[in-house]
Design goal:
The complex is a heterodimer of chains A (339) and B (425).
Chain A lengths: L1 H37 L17 E6 L8 E6 L8 E6 L2 E4 L3 E8 L5 E8 L4 E7 L3 E6 L5 E8 L10 E8 L4 E4 L4 E4 L2 E2 L6 E7 L4 E8 L4 E8 L4 E7 L2 E5 L5 E7 L8 E7 L5 E3 L11 E4 L2 E7 L7 E7 L6 E4 L2 E7 L2
Parallel strand pairs in A: 12-17
Antiparallel strand pairs in A: 1-2, 1-26, 2-3, 4-5, 5-6, 6-7, 8-9, 9-10, 10-11, 12-13, 14-15, 15-16, 16-17, 18-19, 19-20, 20-21, 22-23, 23-24, 24-25
Chain B lengths: L1 H6 L17 H31 L5 H28 L2 H21 L3 H29 L5 H29 L4 H22 L5 H8 L12 H4 L2 H15 L4 H9 L3 H5 L4 H23 L1 H20 L5 H29 L5 H30 L1 H22 L1 H13 L1
Classes of the chains: A mainly beta (339), B mainly alpha (425).
Main location (chain B): membrane
Subcellular location (chain B): Cell membrane
InterPro entries (chain B): MFS, MFS_dom, MFS_trans_sf
């Protein structure tokens, strides 16, 4: 009985220590976070009465502070210079200038995810729910089609594993649905692998697009060419992830897994569509992003900083070869507006 | 019958007569241990994909893949955990090792950086869960009046599931208040794990089921009957294992049901990340009543008939039209299914097994279910892409409609045995 009393006392002490320690930590983090959110972001802002227009790069600003996560723009000819900050926050953004698509996390006691179509003044035109964490989004060149990819994750003890959902909407409100349901063709014949995941759409025009189709069972990660009218996906080649079509339409930049073993290490590569020639670029680090073309010679992509969680930079690498460099510090998800 | 008679303390011997209707304090304590541990693990699990993508800037591809592998490893470790518990006749020590291992992974998350480290920790956490489950369920069995075993497991699973529902809630509230507060979630998760571990280590008695049973059986060796795999393969247990395996092969997993609902219902899409919370709510509300029902009308019966709720959930998911009502109905039906199968299976295996192999038998039954469900999920992938979502769901429902009556007949004798023994009490 005395033994039991002693054990109860020890237990109560453990609970007290845990509650006090965790509470103190939680409170200090809460105050730190409040300070961080109210501190002005240390970025060079463009004057409010002269926002950045014309040829520009729109992105998610990751500079810590009150503007964290907000959409911002820098002039294409002065990417390290002052930025205009929009009144919306997005995890991923793509834009034509007149119209933008924004994938966002709606935090709360229950956290949900959604996609928004925004006009030039950042007003919401259309909203639709996403089933999981935002991953990629692209608009067609004229802005009439929107592709979104999100992760669909189960919960810990009952999951079917990783999967993605990629859907295409039109700006007019039509829903082309999950492209997973399109007919998959290889050399013109239909194939139906047991598992398939789709991600990373890049549009050619308003009917044609490229995307990734992966079947783990078959061990393929295909570049597919999609046809929205016929609702088909045709295999183009293997080993291409997250395609991104160049402005002149002649090349595709993509993530290429260059790991020899069972791991994954993505390098950036460029595929010449006419010749089928592949060039792996001079970026040694693991890049997990859908590349964006700054122009026909330069590629943009985000890389997280190792030492600062949540902060990332947009890097640029020449498509013809050459060393990568930081183009926009404290930025993510670049989208280029060409005029 | 002799098997159940031997491991069952005579009514009133362990508990005072008045408390016969009450659930043992050991069961409630183990339930609270599970509650704290589930808050801890589900809080982390809920935000891990977000942490990996938002804070580390990676995709969750490898995460999901490794997760699937570890589910398999965890299932196999369960048998080993059960074996160790029976062999040493100290189920608590094995459970302490399992809970302790998971607690250490929480501490590890605070210092881990990078994707590989995090997936390794998730893997070790799974192993810890695998180790502790069977010995813990054997302790619940040992501490309960056999006539009310279903209710005991109902109480335990209710507490467990409350933890599973509170965990994600806690995590998202923290992230709401502190947008980059992943470390805070990890700290709170560690705190809950420490409390659960301390509760188990300090306040749960170190019962020796085998020795206890032996002392009640005149003429047996003082250490009780030694562990033997042959006792696990005893005919009635074998029948339970086969039936569980067959039904497991027809259980495609919540994930596919949620995906099917999501593919045509905007309501399900919007709430997709939270659909499992709906299932958990139904499960925790029903675990005790269904457990009591199992005690009254027969555990094998409830276990098999619970699959009719799964069948109905398939029909909801396979239905051509998508309305919010069908989604909600499917979640409730899944909750009914879990209430009728998860704790009830452990109760049934614990009731049928000889004391000397009880944890191993429970662990084996749970492994059979887990592995057959994984095979089922993999196989269902073929159907999903081959036939399309709706027809695939309806096909599973049809096969289940045939299997349930067959399994019902196959398990008929098992409840009779229980009724006889409780009649003798």
């Amino acid at each position: 009985m005395i033994e039991r009393k002693r054990r109860v006392t020890v237990f109560v002490l453990v609970v007290l220590v845990v509650v006090v320690a965790a509470g103190a930590y939680g409170w200090s983090e809460y105050s730190r976070s409040r300070d961080a959110q109210t501190t002005a972001s240390d970025v060079d802002l463009a004057p409010a009465d002269a926002p950045i227009t014309g040829e520009r790069i729109v992105f998610r600003s990751t500079a810590p502070g009150d503007l964290y996560g907000r959409v911002a723009a820098v002039a294409a000819d002065d990417p390290g210079g002052p930025r205009s900050v929009a009144p919306v926050a997005c995890d991923r953004i793509d834009t034509t200038g007149d119209q933008s698509v924004c994938l966002r996390t709606d935090r709360g006691i229950v956290t949900t995810f959604e996609a928004q179509l925004l006009d030039a003044d950042w007003q919401v035109i259309q909203t639709w729910p996403l089933p999981g964490i935002p991953s990629r989004t692209r608009l067609s060149p004229d802005g009439s089609l929107i592709a979104t990819t999100s992760f669909v994750t189960g919960h810990s003890y009952a999951t079917t594993g990783f999967s993605t959902e990629t859907v295409i909407h039109s700006a007019g409100g039509d829903d082309y649905g999950n492209i997973e349901e399109f007919t998959l063709l290889e050399n013109g014949a239909e194939i139906a692998p047991v598992d398939r995941n789709m991600w990373g759409v890049t549009f050619v025009d308003d009917t044609t697009f490229y995307a990734t189709t992966q079947s783990r069972a078959l061990g393929h990660t295909w570049l597919v060419e999609g046809d929205l009218e016929a609702r088909t996906l045709s295999v183009v080649r293997d080993g291409v992830e997250c395609p991104s079509l160049s402005p002149d339409g002649s090349r595709i930049a993509f993530k290429k897994d260059v790991d020899d073993g069972s791991g994954v290490h993505w390098s950036i590569a460029v595929l010449d569509l006419a010749s089928g020639e592949e060039t792996v670029l001079d970026e040694e680090r693991n890049v997990d992003d859908q590349v964006e073309w700054l122009d026909d010679d330069t590629l943009l992509y985000g890389l997280p900083r190792d030492d600062e969680p949540g902060v990332s930079d947009v890097w640029a690498v020449p498509a013809a070869g050459g060393a990568p460099k930081v183009l926009i510090p404290e930025a993510w998800s670049p989208a280029v507006v060409r005029s | 019958m002799y098997i159940t008679l031997r491991d069952r303390p005579k009514a009133g011997e362990q508990a005072p007569p008045r408390s016969k209707q009450k659930v043992s304090s050991v069961v409630v304590t183990l339930g609270v241990v599970s509650l704290m541990t589930d808050i801890s693990s589900e809080a982390v699990a809920a935000i891990l994909p977000l942490y990996v993508t938002a804070a580390l800037g990676l995709t969750t591809i490898a995460y999901g893949f490794i997760d699937g592998l570890m589910q398999g490893a965890s299932a196999l470790v369960r048998i080993a955990g059960g074996w160790a518990a029976d062999r040493g006749d100290h189920p608590k020590w094995v459970a302490v090792a399992g809970y302790g291992l998971s607690m250490l992974t929480r501490a590890g998350l605070l210092v881990a950086s990078g994707f590989a480290a995090i997936t390794a920790l998730v893997a070790v956490d799974r192993v810890g869960k695998g180790i502790r489950t069977a010995p813990r369920d054997a302790m619940i069995t040992a501490a309960s009046d056999p006539a009310h075993l279903g209710r005991s497991f109902g109480v335990h699973r209710t507490l467990d599931t409350i933890g599973a529902a509170l965990g994600p809630l806690l995590a998202f509230i923290v992230l709401w208040a502190i947008p980059d507060g992943y470390t805070t979630v990890f700290v709170l998760s560690l705190g809950c794990a420490v409390i659960g571990f301390a509760l188990l280590a300090l306040l749960v008695p170190d019962t020796r089921p085998r020795r206890q049973a032996a002392s009640k059986t005149a003429g047996a060796k003082p250490a009780g009957r030694p562990f033997s795999w042959r006792s696990v393969a005893e005919p009635r247990l074998r029948r339970l294992l086969v039936v569980s395996g067959v039904l497991g092969l027809l259980t495609i997993g919540d994930g596919f049901i949620y995906l099917a609902l999501q593919s045509r219902d905007g309501f399900a899409t919007q709430w997709f990340p939270l659909l499992y919370v709906g299932t958990n709510l139904a499960y925790l509300a029903l675990a005790i009543p269904v457990g009591r029902l199992a005690d009254r009308v027969g555990r094998a019966r409830v276990l098999v008939l619970g699959h009719l709720a799964l069948l109905a959930a398939y029909l909801c998911a396979g239905a051509a039209t998508g309305v919010a009502g069908l989604t909600i109905a499917a979640l409730v039906l899944l909750g009914v299914f879990y209430a009728a199968t998860d704790g009830v299976l452990a109760a049934l295996a614990g009731q049928l097994a000889d004391t000397s192999v009880r944890a191993a038998a429970i662990g084996t039954a749970q492994t059979v279910v887990a592995v057959s469900r994984m095979i089922s999920a993999a196989a269902f992938g073929f159907l999903w892409y081959g036939l399309g979502r709706g027809p695939a769901m309806l096909l599973m429902a049809a096969v289940l409609a045939v299997a349930v009556p067959a399994c019902f007949v196959a398990l008929r004798g098992l409840d009779a045995a229980r009724v006889t023994t409780s009649g003798a009490a």
